[in-house]
Input
Amino acid sequence: MKILRARDYTHMSRQAANIISAQVILKPDAVLGLATGSSPVGVYEQLIDWYRKGDLDFSLVRTVNLDEYLGLSGSDPQSYRYFMDRHFFDHINIDRANTFVPDGLAPDAAAECSRYDALIRRLGGIDLQLLGLGHNGHIGFNEPDEVFTKGTHKVTLSESTLRANRRFFEREEDVPRFACTVGICDIMQARRIVMVVSGADKADIIREAFFGPVTPHVPASILQLHRDFTLVADEEALIKV
Ligand code: GLP
Output
């Protein structure tokens, strides 16, 4: 595990974007595993900036997102598909047909999860997975559990995650309670993993996840065992380590 200490959110975003752009330059048809949440937004902004300057070309890149809320269509402003379009895909020259997010409206969630796992396999696996970190240590929507879940699956979101997501919805009852997420095994099979974490509110979970035991009660802790994992965190997030 490598830790890159960033001064602040902007610096963190730039450092992570550097790693992603190196990947795209070295392998123009790379498969990028992408994440939502406030943490990676700055990374996407930096990549868009470099694309506009002519330094990056996404025309052959394929992307697979980590997760999606069940019950929301891709045109719902709260969906992760919508998030990705607005924060990234709308601003670069990626072929939209090469961008994948689980279908939140699939009538059979289990079938959609299997389809998504098969899709990742068909793409040849993930070259570089970008991750954020939930306050309870979740990655994607892999919530604390008794075991590490393997493939893409349906999850019931934890109370802590529902509370964290509440800010994005007008009414409490609108916050989706279920999601489809790629599993820990899919994430661990990525050839390289980069996680971005910012802010003092993540300092405790950083200590638990990366300076404590590997346990499914803190799903991100398993990343300690990955052979090419880089944590890019700002000073505030690293204040307790
Ligand atoms: C959601 C996403 C995660 C993300 C987490 C943290 O739960 N499913 O992929 O890492 O939020 O979000 P933020 O970066 O806004 O703290």
Observations:
- Residues 2-234 form a domain with the Rossmann fold fold (CATH 3.40.50.1360).
- The chain has one domain: 2-234.
